[in-house]
Amino acid sequence: MTKKRQLIFSLVRGALAILIALLVAMLLIFISADGNSFGQRLSATAEAMKQLLVGPLFRINAQGIKFEGKRLADIFAAMIPTIFTGLSVCVMFAANQFNLGAEGGIMLGAFSSALVAIYVPLPKGLHALACILVGGAVTGVVMLIPALLKVKLNVSEMVCSLMLNYIIMYIIKYLMNTAYADKSKGQIQTYPFLNSSKIPALTQASIFTSSKLSWGIVIAALTVAAMGFFMYRSRWGYQIRMIGINQDFAKYSGMKVGFVIVLSQVLGGFLAGAGGGIEMLGRYPTFGWSALPGYGWTGITIAILAGNNPCFVPLAAFFLAYLGKGCDMMATYANVPTQLIAIVQGVIFLFFAAERFLSKYRQSLVVKTANEEIAAKMALAGGGGSLPQAGASGSQDSVKEGGKKDE
Questions:
Q1: Which residue among 309, 337, 353 closes a domain?
Q2: Domain check: are 61 and 84 in the same one?
Q3: CA–CA separation, 44 vs 47, rounded Å?
Q4: What is the pLDDT along the chain (407 residues), one digit of tens a residue?
Q5: Hey, how many other C-beta atoms are within 10 angstroms of the C-beta on 392?
Q6: Are 78 and 325 spatial neighbours (Cβ–Cβ below 8 Å)?
Q7: Range of the domain at 38
Q8: CA distances from 41 to 31, 44, 61, 325, 328 (A)
Q9: Three-state secondary structure call for residue 40
Q10: Parallel, antiparallel, or unpaired for β 64-67 and 58-61?
């Protein structure tokens, strides 16, 4: 299949999965809506969907619809940590390593960055950079645990990293309760960060008036560009993708499979940890997370939506942040539970993970591409005769084989 048709298929498949998820959400809203009659429930559902689809960017009232720049800024702010966890999962999944450690990784990165921000005074600018790098480095080192266990002992990285998330969380909770908490406060939190370590808010532009949006969004955009270059323009990125496609072929081609597997997971851990540091320093005055923040689980959905392509991660992150904001608007103005976003994400995940979803449409594109290639080759050869169609039994089988390999 050509790259253009592959892109079209991915877009159609993604759009249809999202549409089905929204239809499921609409059905659930209708079932749980207030009202005794069909019309009342339908009206409540329409109001809820209006808040879900339009509310994240526009204020809806009796005077009409007005664009709200602060709401857009809030969506961008919500994208910052999920972009980093999405990139983290993309790198690891591209190597066919189902490491789920981004959830604990972003919490560990935030905690490590917070300690440097409190106890290691440095000049402004350099301090924030040091905090982020330390957070990423610590998380990358911890990700060596599932990576080395996978390479040396063939331990499932999925199970190991999943359990590692909770080990990280409980170690941080123990340290907070025993060593690093500010006892003068009524809740468990660290001492305030030094001013030199904070990432400033992006308030220069009038549209970005939200204090939640920091310069971390610019760092996230630069990281996306860097990871896109790394994955598709560097030797290491090519090896990561090749191992993900066919590990045996990569091994017999002379690639250091074990090293690249470790590299992918350490790099994924670094990205998650750095994202945690940026989120913490750009949005909070102290560290007070007492549970896993959920950004890593969202990053898995983002990576699946993006097809493990770092360049598409911002689009997927924007969609989920927009959806989250819409669910908050529904909960506020339409009396719909915010847990609905988990259902919508689950439906999207289901259809993206289903390999047979729209498989016939994909097969038709493969057949069409094969027929065009056969026609082009016969035209170059100057051959007459009848054109063998991929729909014939023999050619059909061969095209199907090619389609399976292409998948």
A1: 353
A2: no
A3: 5
A4: 677 777 787 788 878 888 888 888 888 888 877 777 888 888 888 888 888 888 888 887 777 788 888 888 889 999 999 999 999 999 999 999 999 999 999 999 999 999 999 999 999 989 999 999 999 999 999 999 999 999 999 999 999 999 999 999 999 999 999 989 988 888 899 999 999 999 988 865 555 565 678 899 999 999 999 999 999 999 999 999 999 999 888 888 889 999 999 999 999 999 999 999 999 999 999 999 989 999 999 999 899 888 899 999 999 999 889 988 888 888 777 777 777 777 776 777 777 667 677 778 778 888 888 888 888 888 888 755 454 554 544 444 444 444 444 44
A5: 11
A6: yes
A7: 3-67
A8: 8, 5, 20, 23, 20
A9: helix
A10: antiparallel
- Looking at the fold, whether 153 and 51 belong to one and the same domain comes out as no
Q: What DSSP string runs through 267-321?
A: HHHHHHHHHHHHHHHHH-SS----S--SHHHHHHHHHHHTTT-GGGHHHHHHHHH
Q: Are residues 349 and 367 in the same domain?
A: no
Angle at 316 between CA 310 and CA 318, to 5 degrees: 120
**Sequential DSSP letters for 136-200:** HHHHHHHTHHHHHHHHHH---HHHHHHHHHHHHHHHHHHHIIIII--TTSSSS--PPPPGGGPPP
Same domain for 381 and 262, yes or no, is no
Q: Give the domain CATH number at 281.
A: 1.10.3470
Regarding whether 159 and 31 lie in a shared domain, the answer is: no
Q: Per the structure block, which two tokens stand in for 320?
A: 């989920």
Co-location of 63 and 75 in the same domain: no
Do residues 399 and 296 both lie within one domain? no
The pTM of the full predicted model, rounded to 2 decimals, is 0.84
Asked if 44 and 172 sit in the same domain, the reply is no
Q: Which residues make Cβ contacts (< 8 Å) with residue 180, sequence separation at least 6?
A: 115, 190, 191, 287
Residues in contact with 50: Cβ distance below 8 Å, sequence separation at least 6, in sequence order: 60
Q: What's phi and psi for 214, nearest 5 deg? A: -115, 180
Q: Could you give the CA distance from residue 394 to residue 405 in angstroms, rounded to a whole number?
A: 17
Our count of domains for the chain comes to 3
**Which three-class secondary structure state does DSSP give residue 238?**
helix
Beta-bridge partners for 214:
201
Residue finishing a domain among 353, 370, 393: 353
Cβ neighbours for 269, distance < 8 A, ≥ 6 positions apart: 88, 101, 102, 105, 136, 139, 140, 141, 142, 143
Question: For the chain, what's the residue count?
Answer: 407
